[in-house]
Design goal:
This protein has 568 residues and is an alpha+beta fold. Helices cover 24% and strands 30% of the residues. It has a domain of 101 residues: Lipocalin.
């Protein structure tokens, strides 16, 4: 390999330090390049069971935690990430998360009559599998990783029997949806939801339709058993995919994730479960606290929807920072207790309703109910939902389990939240205690690949600049400059993605986030058959950006200039 060819390959991310620079005009690869290594020094590791280990060094190599220990040696080839005074927690797991799923559109034809609609319009779609229609790729999970979420349960919705969910891990550099899937059959999703312009349309009709579907599935099983026993005089029964799933549910082979918030609907779910033998897991469950003792006795788990209602009539009092006078004990003792504010009836009712929802998790905890806190399908800020629940009585220890080990067990991925030597490097690094309001996500690792967090509870500051458009981004490292033509598309939440092209290295993917005037991004490059990542952060001012970054083999700086015609 000539020096010129080495320089060409170096443009593939200044990363050929792993391959060695030739001392003469020609060189050959003598060994496979080492996997990238990253190091976090002097962090506090908080395990899912609450154990704390301060002063720990962590080395990640080849997707695994290669080193984890107090004062452990850090190899010289590891890229050191800022770790001092940071906290490492298991990655968050959203048991009711969000992903891109491309189920076919269901259309009602002109010939359909409301009293005799086809199954897809009626909502009997039990056979549909998220695993078969998932369109999400690694780049699509950036917002979740930025808020510390490393895995999720993806459940179909919008029908009375919407189909079978799947568990995914938010891996970074995968472009095929099936590469995200960790469990292709979580169980059946059901809800008291009417048909699309056809029977069943009322709650009474929906429950009757569900009962009929379960009875038909039983009858289908009897026909199949009879044919298997003696086919004389019988036709071979046709396979019915919806009935097959319902039979699995009735046999207890798969759980049924049943959406129900109100106490009366939860009772209806429990009644159907008793009648047909399925194992329910409640989804939503805002009034589950009203049946907490019964749920605990039955072993029914709850996926709490963290997309809590926002007060409209009642105004929640803001927290007051203590001043020096209030800190004086004598003054505090002498102070008269404040009279509670008398609320209008509408505000008082809303206050009671919303505070009951905020206290739901704590009441389930007290009763011994198994539960996870979720985003409710991606709408809520997961850590903010936990904070709100903790403010109303939920313990920190149970809160941590509710977003790590409990949902991991439900999704069939119990080892994902384990932070230990030899385990997959899947964890989140934060600036302070995980559920403190001011704590920021700094790095999220998923199986050894990392990207920088979005800041606070999930969204960070609103973007102050728009980076959509065409840019020339120049990376500077090892005394050389590598210009790249980048095309970026930014979403309203500040996340962006696109491509970056260099004459020597070809086209690479780029993804990132803008928070205020701050920008961070990751460029994924294929260098010699190995996927390499460069991460960088900096600031954007008008049509210029600049900052610094890291590759697995050294630091770099970057500058960027928006090209004429780019979106401002």
């Amino acid at each position: 390999m000539t020096r010129a060819s080495v320089r060409t390959l170096m443009a593939g991310m200044v990363l050929l330090g792993t391959m060695g620079y030739p001392a003469s005009g020609v060189a050959q690869f003598r060994a496979a390049p080492k996997a990238p290594a990253y190091a976090l020094e002097n962090v506090t590791v908080v395990h899912a069971d609450g154990r704390r280990e301060p002063g720990v060094n962590i080395v990640v190599r080849g997707g695994l935690i290669a080193v984890l220990g107090v004062g452990a040696a850090i190899p010289g080839d590891a890229t050191k990430l800022k770790g001092d005074s940071l906290f490492v927690y298991p990655g968050l797991i959203d048991a009711m998360g969000e992903a891109e799923v491309g189920f076919p559109e269901i259309e009602r034809g002109d010939s359909v009559r409301s009293w005799n609609g086809p199954r897809d319009l009626q909502g009997l779609l039990a056979h549909r599998r998220v695993a078969d229609y998932l369109t999400q790729t690694g780049a699509d999970g950036q917002a979740q990783r930025g808020s510390g979420i490393v895995a999720a349960g993806i459940h179909p919705s919008g029908a009375l029997a919407a189909g079978l969910g799947a568990a995914i891990v938010h891996r970074t550099d995968v472009d095929r949806p099936w590469q995200l899937i960790a469990n292709d059959n979580l169980g059946l999703s059901m809800a008291f939801q009417g048909g699309r312009g056809v029977y069943p349309g009322t709650l009474f009709a929906v429950i009757a339709f569900m009962r009929q579907a379960f009875e038909d599935a039983r009858l289908d099983a009897l026909k199949r058993d009879a044919y298997a026993s003696d086919p004389t005089g019988l036709s071979l029964p046709a396979f019915d995919p919806d009935y097959a799933v319902l039979r699995q549910a009735m046999a207890g082979e798969i759980p049924v994730y049943f959406a129900a918030d109100r106490a009366e609907d939860i009772r209806r779910v429990l009644g159907l479960a008793d009648e047909y033998g399925f194992r329910p897991t409640l989804v939503g469950g805002h009034e589950a606290w009203k049946l907490a003792d019964e749920l605990a006795a039955r072993g029914v788990a709850v996926l709490i929807d963290g997309d809590f209602p926002v007060p409209t009539t009642w105004k929640k009092p803001e927290k007051e920072e203590p001043d020096s006078a209030a800190a004086d004990s004598a003054a505090a003792e002498a102070a008269e207790p404040a009279e509670p504010e008398e609320l209008e009836p509408d505000a008082a009712r809303e206050k009671k309703q919303i505070e009951d929802i905020w206290a739901n998790a704590a009441r389930l905890e007290a009763a011994g109910v198994t539960f996870a806190i979720t985003t409710g399908g991606g709408e809520a800020d997961l850590r903010e939902a936990v904070r709100q629940s903790m403010e109303y009585g939920l313990s920190e220890a149970t809160a941590l389990r509710a977003v790590t080990t409990v949902p991991a067990a439900m999704l069939g991925i119990p080892n994902v939240p384990r932070v230990g030597q030899g385990m997959a490097a899947t964890f989140v690094t934060v600036s302070g205690p995980l559920f403190d309001e001011d704590t920021e996500v700094r790095y999220t690792f998923v199986e050894g690949a990392y990207e920088k967090g979005s800041g606070g509870g999930g969204g960070g500051a609103a973007p102050a600049v728009v980076v959509t458009g065409n840019w020339t981004i120049t990376l500077s490292a090892m005394g050389q400059e590598f210009p790249m033509d980048a095309t970026l598309t930014m979403e309203p939440d500040g996340s962006f993605s696109g491509s970056a092209t260099n004459d020597q290295m070809g086209t690479s993917s780029i993804r990132g986030r803008v928070s205020g005037n701050d920008i961070n991004f990751t460029i994924s490059v294929n260098a010699g058959g190995q996927q390499i990542e460069i991460t960088a952060d900096g600031t954007v001012e008008g049509e210029r950006m600049s900052g610094s970054g890291e590759s697995p083999f050294g630091s770099l700086t970057f500058t960027g200039r928006k090209n004429p015609g780019g979106t401002r």
